[in-house]
Amino acid sequence: MRRARWLAPWKDSSEKPVIYHCVTRVVERRLAFGAEEKEQFRTYLRMYENFSGCRVLSYCLMCNHVHILLEVPPMKEGGLSDDELLKRLRAIYPEAAVRLVAKELHEARKVIREGLAAESYATTIHERYTYRMHDLGEFMKTLLARFTRWFNTRHERSGTLWESRFKSVLVEDGIASRTMAAYIDLNPVRAGMAADPADYRWSSYGEAMGGGARGNGRKARAGLVRAVMAHQMEALNSKHEIRSEELAGQWKAMSRDYRMILLAEGEEKLREVVSEGGRLEVKVTRKGMKKEVVEAELALLERSRDVALGKMLRCRVRYFTDGAVIGSREFVDEVFTRCRDRFGGKRKDGARKLRGSGAAAAGRLWSVRDLRKQIG
């Protein structure tokens, strides 16, 4: 009997983001995806993003596996209006099919207005489609099934395309989601397929920097901004729906720092920073240092910590695919407490320090699993 997937205990709450890192691999790890396959997968990825109400924060399409950092917000209170439902349907259904649903809804509303039937008929029409929305499992299942049908037709094959059910890791927003997004965007660098992640077309960062046929990279930029800055946005915790245009407008403000993580730039400036007694401090080389200079050095210090993360992210970090839950110590312990029945009675707490190739993030990020093999 396979174990139930890790899901956020607060998955139906609008107060806290729910983010997952999803990984799926081609059967037998075959190098099955070329440029055409990756473009088609990205097309379906965006289609099902628009249909489901889930948000793709980061992604990378490799030759034999796929990474997706996905935010799964709850269905808004009161559900979708008829117009909103039809707009969602247009993302994946032909216009003729949408017109039939629109006609059904029109007739149902007409009957309701005339007092001949209850609201339940129109609700049933909605539920025919909304059960696949705002749900991690349904998003991945429908996306992968749709791509499999296309792939099998294109290559005159049949049968399963994917190695097993997809993996997912629950990720805290903030440092964890930013780090995970960078880890995903650096896949082609780790694989030796690109020196600069901006040069790899089939990733969120490559799309954000190079644009694309649809939206000129706007969706990709909006997703990365949300991965990096969502925890800072007051509107995230309000009933206001943040539009992609608003998020993409923040791209300029955060893209330089994000690129610094990806490329580990500024290492030469670290010579001005030293570590003493286990604490990082600014090295003052002359008396009378002006306040603004000290503040600039402190800002550099913060960025230098991200440089260390950048170096770590050039290695495979198994915690990011098999750690089950990744975030701050408080975040991991909270999930552990609320999912206590998944663990044996002897275990007292949830957070486990990252080791091996993930050690650079130890103390900042924690895992709920204490991995012992293949960690670096």
Write the SSE topology:
Layout: E1 19-25, H1 35-52, E2 55-61, E3 65-71, H2 82-89, H3 95-113, H4 120-130, H5 136-154, E4 167-171, H6 175-185, H7 187-190, H8 204-210, H9 218-229, H10 244-248, H11 251-263, E5 273-276, E6 279-282, H12 291-312, H13 319-322, E7 325-327, H14 329-338, E8 352-353, E9 366-367
Helix pairs in contact: 1-5, 6-9, 8-9, 9-11, 11-12
Overview features:
Alpha-Beta Plaits, about 375 residues, alpha+beta, 14 helices, globular, 3 domains, two-stranded antiparallel ribbon, 9 strands, single chain, seven-stranded mixed β-sheet
CATH superfamily of the largest domain: Transposase IS200-like
Number of helices: 14
Which residue ranges are poorly predicted, with pLDDT under 50 across at least 5 consecutive positions? 234-240, 265-287
CA-CA gap between termini: 31 Å
Largest sheet: 7 strands, mixed
- What is the CATH class of the largest domain? Alpha Beta
